[in-house]
Every structure is written in structure tokens, then in C-alpha cells.
Design brief:
The structure is a single chain. The protein is an alpha+beta fold and about 450 residues long. The chain has a domain of about 90 residues: Rossmann fold (3-Layer(aba) Sandwich). About 45% of the residues lie in helices and about 20% in strands. The protein is built from 19 helices and 16 strands. An 8-stranded mixed sheet has the order 1-5-6-11-10-9-7-8.
Length: about 450
């Protein structure tokens, strides 16, 4: 008999792991709500017509497609099979696919529900996405995204607010970060002044890989895209620009003096940096001209967040897009958004052991089961405790006491209540602290008060 398994790039999560993951989701969700964002959800699957062509050629290849119900092969002709064009064949036998990100479904949602939405619309979404990528460390085929977007407003105060939110989330999670900023208009201006304005996409895709593949390989990739050596030479001092944010901006103002687009990008970055300087943020923001982010729909600010104490790639990122809803027939709606990579944040917290104490503790108290008479005494008490917000359970059968205490230990239950014949006749409860091993005998009222207070303190 074949052993059960799960698809590569997916994971099971135990109760302890779920407690950790929910800590991340709850922290992010609380901050989103604190800033006035409201939650929506979209289906796990979308029509392929919604998804195809939105992520570039590479993205299209990574879409998980869902076979049509029933006899899907009837849609194919012998010619289709002989032709061997799998992309063309796939569209005939699959009309739906699993969502690749939350941004394109959000754009589709805005267009479909535009009559009900008040702009600017601040939404957040915390749901899984799927990519048929090659699984490797820190990269999964099923993973969660936690997105927040503001759509229907051009104001750069939105970018400032998102940077504030990033700072607040990672402050609460105790992760030290560096937030890197750039602007697509600056990149366009650079492409303009080196004489390669029409190669902006090739330029940004290559520059974005600087951290991963190094300068020489970036230059090699640029050559392979037919970008002239002269342009590559002009690009070097810009890519390798060092110094403080202010120094970089001053240099850029000189370098991009003849580019209207480039200067507009500098103006936007300056506005954002000046406003965030008023906010006493805990984490550093750095202007990084090599930051391009692969997705082509960014038109203004680009944001990427890295953990200072863990080498794991980007743990959050986003930017400004001016016409995302245009792909669905609603032009000129500007938006800006960020996405937190919950799975990578989870890996960082695990690596640095930054979870709060008692996080994996679910139940506050276990009642030992001695038999039917004791059960009848305990059941109303359980209800009373739960009504006060205390998580309580009774062992389901009168097993050996050692077995019941082992259950409490294995499930990190801090307190055990022992109520036998003596306790019932005395109107007392024996409370055992599983950590210290201490036992005390107290009245029912004291017992309820003690546990309710403990619960409030946690």
C-alpha cells in the first residue's frame, strides 16, 4: 500500500505551528485594521482569462490550471494532440486556474463591484496563493499573502502610510528590518539618459538581480539584450551609487537633470522620505536604485523589505501602479499596495526564536476524570470557566492519572484540577501547577477567581 504524501512545495502545519502562524496573521490583521483597511476575500480559483497575460510569459507558465469537469478531452481534436502546443491545448481543457497572487483578483473585484465601492478604497486580504514554481528553501508552491492596497487615490501620503504600517508590523513582531525604496520613474529616467528608453523592462529585470548574481552577470545579461556597451558603461556609477539618502538624491538630481520623468521620480521619493522623517520610525529606510522588483505593473514607488538578522530574501514588498484595473476595462484608477510574505516571516521568526512565551499553549486547565460522579460535578464548572474566557477541558475517560497528567504535559497545559470524592464533600478543588509541581486546595470561588485572573494576565 502506497504511503500517503503531499504535493511538493506544500506543507502540513501542527497545532503548535498554527499557533505561531496565527500570531503572525493576527499581528498583521490588527495593524491593517488600525490603519482603516477593510477585509475582503476572493475565490481560490479564477477564470484563466482573468489570470493569463497579467504576470508576463514566465508567470503564465507558473499558473496552476484546473481541468474542466466531465469529459474535458472531448474539446480536443486529433490535430491539437499532434500539434503538441501544450499552452494552446491547456486553454481548451482548462477554463479556470488557482490564483497566482491577490493583486490581479483584487483588480477584478474592484471592476466588478465598482458601483458598491467608495473610493479611495482601502482593502486587505489574507489568503493562500499558488505557483507552479520549483520548490526550494523559502519558496513554496502554496503560500499565504497578506496584502493591503489603497486604490482610487494618487496621493503620496498613501505610500507614507504603508511604510508606517510596515514599520509597525515588524516592530510588533520584533524583527529588525531595512525597507528599500525606489521609483519606477527614476529607473525610466536612467534608461532615457543612457539612450535605452525602449529597453526599460530589460534594464529593470537585469538590475533587480544585482544582489543575487553580482554586477558582472548583470552586465552580461544587459549585453545579451542588445544594450550597447556605451549605455552599460554610463549605467555603472548609477547602479553603484553609495552614501546617505540625501547624498544619493543630490547626485541623481544632477545625473537626471535632462529627464523630466526622472526628476518627477526624485520629487516623489523626496516627499515620502521627508514625511516619514516626521514619524520616528524604528526601522531604516534606504533609497536603493537597484530595486526594480520583477513585476512590470509598478509605475511609481517601489518598496522591498528585508530582515537584517536573517538571509531569506524579501519578506514584504509592493509599490504604486497606475492602471492595474485598466486590464479589466476600468482605466486610470491609481493604486498602491504592499504584501507581507507570511511564510518567510514565519521562517525568520523560527530562525531567530522571536515568538512570545506561552504561544503554543491552548488550554488553560485540564480537569482529571475520576468517574461519573466527578464528571457530573465538573461539567457545570467547565461552562462557568469558559463563560469567563478560560480555556478548559476534561479528560474524556477515567484513565490512569499518570496518563491524564502526561496528556496535560504533552499539550503544554499549565494547570490541572483534581476533584475526587474528598474534594466534592469538602467543597474544595485541588489545583496542580504542572510547571512547578505545587498543589493547593482551594474553594470553588477562589479557584474560578484565580484562573480568571491568570487568563487576564496572559
Amino acid at each position: 500500500m502506497q504511503k500517503p504524501s503531499i504535493p511538493k512545495g506544500t506543507r502540513d502545519f501542527s497545532p503548535e505551528e498554527m499557533a505561531k502562524r496565527n500570531y503572525i496573521f493576527d499581528t498583521i490583521k490588527t495593524v491593517f485594521q488600525l490603519f482603516g483597511f477593510r477585509q475582503i476575500e476572493t475565490p481560490a480559483m479564477e477564470n484563466l482569462s482573468t489570470l493569463l497575460g497579467k504576470y508576463g510569459e514566465e508567470g503564465d507558465k507558473l499558473l496552476f490550471k484546473i481541468l474542466n469537469s466531465g469529459d474535458f478531452l472531448s474539446a480536443l481534436t486529433p490535430e491539437d494532440l499532434q500539434e503538441g502546443n501544450s499552452a494552446k491545448t491547456a486553454t481548451k481543457i482548462a477554463e479556470k486556474g488557482l490564483r497566482y497572487d491577490l493583486t490581479v483578483p483584487f483588480a477584478r473585484y474592484v471592476v466588478m463591484h465598482r458601483q458598491e465601492i467608495t473610493f479611495p478604497f482601502k482593502r486587505f486580504q489574507i489568503q493562500p496563493v499558488w505557483r507552479a514554481d520549483r520548490p526550494q528553501k523559502g519558496r513554496y508552491r502554496e503560500f499565504f499573502q497578506c496584502d493591503a492596497d489603497i486604490i482610487g487615490s494618487d496621493s503620496l501620503l498613501n505610500e507614507v502610510e504603508l511604510l508606517q504600517m510596515i514599520d509597525e508590523v515588524f516592530k510588533r513582531l520584533n524583527i529588525l528590518i531595512i525597507t528599500k525604496l525606489n521609483n519606477r520613474k527614476i529607473l525610466s529616467g536612467i534608461a532615457e539618459i543612457i539612450g535605452e528608453a525602449d529597453k526599460i523592462t530589460d534594464l529593470t529585470v537585469a538590475i533587480d538581480k544585482l544582489d543575487k548574481i553580482g554586477l558582472e552577470n548583470v552586465n552580461e545579461e544587459l549585453r545579451s539584450k542588445n544594450i550597447s556597451q556605451e549605455a552599460i558603461d554610463k549605467l555603472q556609477p548609477i547602479i553603484l551609487l553609495r552614501g546617505s539618502n540625501e547624498e544619493k538624491i543630490e547626485t541623481l538630481k544632477n545625473v537626471l537633470a535632462t529627464s523630466k520623468t526622472g526628476l518627477k521620480g526624485i520629487e516623489e521619493i523626496e516627499f515620502i522620505l521627508n514625511k516619514t522623517a516626521l514619524l520616528s520610525l524604528e526601522n531604516q529606510i534606504e533609497l536603493d536604485l537597484t530595486l526594480a522588483r520583477g513585476l512590470n505593473y509598478y509605475t511609481g514607488t517601489i518598496i522591498e523589505v528585508k530582515a537584517v538578522d536573517a538571509e531569506i530574501g524579501s519578506i514584504s514588498g509592493g509599490g504604486r501602479y497606475d492602471n492595474l484595473t485598466g486590464i479589466f476595462g476600468l482605466p486610470n484608477v491609481s493604486g498602491v499596495g504592499i504584501s507581507f510574505g507570511a511564510d518567510r516571516i514565519y521562517d525568520v521568526l523560527n530562525r531567530l526564536n522571536l515568538y512570545p512565551d506561552n504561544l503554543t499553549q491552548g488550554t488553560d486547565i485540564l480537569f482529571v476524570n475520576f468517574g461519573e460522579q466527578e464528571e457530573n460535578f465538573i461539567l457545570p464548572l467547565l461552562t462557568q470557566l469558559r463563560n469567563k474566557g478560560v480555556s478548559a477541558e476534561i479528560y474524556p475517560e477515567p484513565a490512569k492519572i499518570k496518563k491524564q497528567l502526561s496528556y496535560a504535559d504533552a499539550n503544554h497545559i499549565p494547570f490541572v484540577a483534581l476533584i475526587g470524592e474528598n474534594e466534592i464533600s469538602e467543597g474544595k478543588i485541588t489545583l496542580k501547577n504542572m510547571k512547578s509541581g505545587d498543589q493547593i486546595k482551594i474553594s470553588r470561588d477562589e479557584f474560578i477567581k484565580k484562573l480568571s485572573t491568570k487568563n487576564r494576565q496572559q
